[in-house]
Amino acid sequence: MGLYAITGASGGIGGKAAEMIRAAGHTVINIDIKDADINANLATPEGRKKAIEELRAMASEGLDAMICVAGVSAMCGKPKLIISVNYFGTVELVEGVYDLLRKKHGCVVVTASNTISQGAARMDIVDLLNNTSDEKRILSLLEGKDPAAYSHAMYVSSKYALSRWMRRSSPGYAAEGVRINAIAPGNVATPMTADLTPHAWEACLALPIPTLYHQKKLMDPEDISKGIVFLASDMASGVNGIILFVDGGTDALLNSEKVY
Amino acid sequence: MIREVIKTIKDGDYKGLAALFSVRSNYSDFMPNTIGRNDYHIYGRKSIEMFFQNKLFFHEMVITNVEYESETSANYLAVYNGENLHAQMRIENIDNKGKIKRLVVRPTAGEFAKYVNPID
Predict the structure, then answer these.
(1) Is the pTM of this model over 0.95?
(2) pLDDT value of position B115
């Protein structure tokens, strides 16, 4: 059976995906900040290096999939952390184990967000992320910036840049037998969303989820995990370079004219 | 009827607005295209409700200076993404229960026309 590496599988969406993949008879290596097979802080270059080295040791014969779910939301209020984990924590990890994926014609699934279509990305930051990949310089731009003003924009920018990196990489990866795709979740119920203020809750519901019409709730993490497991499976053998929105239709509601 | 539509939008009452539409209905808004964005084409009462829940909560559809032209049309100043635009809203189709089947918002030359010298 297969060998799958998942970042952020200690709980939530990653944890559910790991459960489903194990239930199908595969082995999962969990990479997370704690309580994982590989404990590593993906926010730092040293943490990423540790994760890559340990994963290479555990998967020397190759990997069937590298699934990157680990990330931080805008609610953490730390713009630099958001950029480091969400963008560099994913890109460096995937590129660090690319040759393991080639060995087994494995695949990659990265986690974007349905916010990428809502217009809040800072395209100057996105361009710097994609075209320079200079983490130190980019983070220096955020020094001293008001977290309240920048966290959401940096979250969306990190996910936008990640999506574009995925699309740019996809033809070359696939030509060497490695499919790569992204999942773009909508608003998901998490322990954090259980503690929202009434106004924040109304703001969440003001991004309506058509499949949950009038139910006043957010998406189940399992809905997102199913999308990840599909993209990482043979059922998606012809799928490469796409961003799969798993948001109950929110993007189609607000951006119906963006067909392509 | 157009007065009810405008009132619900100004009150932020997305449920009241949706209730004015028939189940199978359409809202088309060609204003965003004038500022380089995609138009809105929303099909169905429930979609219209959800769409306006989003737009009205985040104040992305602000209407001021309304002039009523008839029972089914009005022109006003609208704010789209921070830009002030002159728009005309028309109820183009009503079903046999008096519910809106098609509501359309289009750009209008409106007051600008009076400053253009007539060609004689």
Answers:
(1) no
(2) 43
